[in-house]
Amino acid sequence: MVKTVLVVDDDPGVIHTVKYGLEGLSENYNVFSVDSGEKCLDFLEKNNPPDIIVLDIMMPGMTGWETHRKIKKNLSWKDIPIIFLTARTDSTAKKAGGFLGDEFIEKPCKITDLKQKIDKILKI
Q: Is the pLDDT of residue 82 over 60?
């Protein structure tokens, strides 16, 4: 069964790498992307919820932390697993990201490592 992944990142290179990397490694993934927290919430309002969200922390406007909080407050979205994928490597981010999210991954990462974590969370 095909799983949907929503990638939220302001870096087009990250979006491209994750989308084509995951879809190239497996036919089990259909990857959508948006470049901001605001667009993430808009996507969630207008579409079926994805099976998992890959969320950057450091974005202009609404940060990943704020986006996460708004997703988890919404009863329709609160159970969507979230993986934080970020260049932020300080201990505060690691602790908070590991506590709040289902996974915390530092950029750059190998697409195979990201796929493995997604597979584990979605039990593929």
A: yes
